[in-house]
Amino acid sequence: SAVISQKPSRDICQRGTSLTIQCQVDSQVTMMFWYRQQPGQSLTLIATANQGSEATYESGFVIDKFPISRPNLTFSTLTVSNMSPEDSSIYLCSVDPGTSGGNTQYFGPGTRLTVL
Amino acid sequence: TQLLEQSPQFLSIQEGENLTVYCNSSSVFSSLQWYRQEPGEGPVLLVTVVTGGEVKKLKRLTFQFGDARKDSSLHITAAQPGDTGLYLCAGADAGNNRKLIWGLGTSLAVNP
Predict the structure, then answer these.
(1) Portion of chain B with pLDDT greater than 90, in percent
(2) In the β-sheet with B19-24, what is the strand arrangement from edge to edge?
(3) What's the average model confidence in pLDDT over B42-54?
(4) Residue contact A31–B98, C-beta within 8 A
């Protein structure tokens, strides 16, 4: 397993501003993912954060809106740019340690973002 | 596009009752995971099933992977208020990109 921390845990932001969310893992992992989740609902994958290369974005998500950094194997950031109220959500990072026996992911506690 | 249908979406039961949550797909998954999430927390892994027909037990929770690896179920015996939460199933993408395909989730409330 892996222990993942996220900062900030929550924030309230004004429309038009940007927020950078940090994700720190206690061990080196190849695969890191960023998700968005509405409370009580399922997860929507934003992108896969690749170390040493650009992130791979899912349909409906673009780099200009959600730039991602992955400077090393234990850290990643997701920026939510030019925010609008529609960006209010819970943002989660996860890691896949790549162990055998299934594509298991471990999650951080999430960042609850409210955009006014 | 792989899809994973999860049912029921909402479930409210009394303490001591049994329940089953289902995840179904027309696609084959190499593995399937079940997660439980409480408010303000990230999803926590409960189990990973890999082999068709596999049954795993975790105290009062029983997980089954279909023989064809297209479906799975989670059965809770004698539910307790501490079982309350959002249950999510996730199937491993058929490709080699280690993405997960997520069900829509089952919000379970166990009333004392």
Answers:
(1) 81
(2) B5-7, B19-24, B71-76, B61-65, B55-58
(3) 94
(4) yes
